[in-house]
Specification:
It is built from 8 helices and 14 strands.
Length: about 325
């Protein structure tokens, strides 16, 4: 039996609902990052409605996980010992708390067909959804369910989407291998080619399909409502409740193509950036600790600017518009 720290939460919790008629198997997760509470709030709201009959499951199986990372949630921070949403995979010899979470969560994900993972972000910005790759048979992230992800994404209630996560993260991993920076333990993980794999990537690797919904800033009072509406829309779209399929909405898509890491904790932004802010080629984005400038290599959009990133971790991403979603509506 693996050694556990007595100071850790000693159990994980999920709530399962099974309808009499067959249907999709859907899992919805919140608080994969402990300081992102909108998903936990929204999931608990849906649970309360299911318990009192205000919401009724009519087909399929629904699994709700309000708090995927109990230690991080209790601490009110992104991770317990590390970021759960990186390098997510079962392991024979768990070394940290998130390894134990993975050994519980990964088999649970694999039992389902669809995942909706609810998150929030630190800097200002509008809610958006992370899509997986287009259908492909490549080595990095082969996939065959892009149309299903796109159809659900159009019904979540947000106007913006982003793709290109794993390929862009792999680019950052290769750079970190060549120029390790920051904490040694983080450097070890950052050099692992699986480190970009989180909940949705793991779900796709098991034959399912998945979306990450970024519901807004951590402290945005609207974020739990956005998460709740996405839960209801997902259930309706999948035919799991007695509600009409929401009408598909047009979406703007950005494709990630570059990630820039912090090299030193003293690296700083030139101003307070928000996700999807435009930058022009040569525009000053920030400065390294030694004063050297960090400028935009192209006309682009900033995604996930994180002034609190640790050295050796992602500082910000760059993205460009993509035409992937322009050919009709699913």
């Amino acid at each position: 039996m693996a050694q556990v720290n007595p100071g850790w939460p000693q159990a994980f919790a999920c709530h399962r609902y099974q309808a009499l008629p067959d249907g999709p198997s859907l899992i919805i997760t919140g608080a994969v990052h402990g300081n992102e509470v909108c998903g936990a709030i929204a999931i608990r709201r849906a649970m309360a409605e299911l318990e009192r009959g205000a919401l009724a499951l009519r087909a399929g199986q629904l699994t709700l996980v309000p708090v995927a990372n109990p230690l991080a949630y209790r601490l009110g921070q992104r991770g317990g010992d590390r970021n759960l949403n990186r390098n997510l995979a079962p392991c024979d010899h768990p070394r940290d708390y998130e390894d134990h979470v993975a050994n519980w969560l990964c088999p649970l994900l694999a039992e389902h067909q669809v995942l909706l993972d609810l998150h929030s972000f630190q800097s200002p910005g509008q809610p958006f959804v992370f899509l997986g790759p287009a259908d492909n048979d490549g080595e990095l992230e082969p996939f065959v369910h892009a149309a299903r992800e796109e159809a659900l994404a159009r019904r979540l209630g947000v106007a913006d989407a982003v793709d290109g996560w794993l390929s862009t993260y792999a680019l950052g991993v290769e750079r970190r291998r060549q120029s390790p920076a920051g904490d040694a333990a983080l450097a070890e993980l950052n050099a692992d080619p699986r480190y970009g794999v989180g909940t949705t990537e793991y779900m796709r690797s098991q034959g399912g399909w998945a979306l990450t919904l970024e519901c807004g800033r951590h402290d945005d009072p609207a974020a739990p409502e956005i998460a709740y509406r996405a839960i209801l829309n997902t259930l309706a779209h999948l035919g799991m409740v007695d509600a009409p399929d929401p009408a598909p909405q047009p979406m703007a898509l950005l494709r990630l193509y570059e990630v820039v890491d912090k090299r030193d904790d003293a690296d700083s932004f030139a101003r307070a950036w928000s996700s999807f802010d435009s930058v022009s080629q040569g525009e000053l984005i920030g400065r390294r600790a030694d004063g050297s400038p960090v400028t935009a290599p192209d006309d682009a959009r900033i995604v996930f600017p994180n002034p609190r990133a640790q050295a050796g971790q992602e500082w910000f991403y760059l993205a460009k518009p993509s035409a992937r979603l322009e050919n009709g509506q699913s």
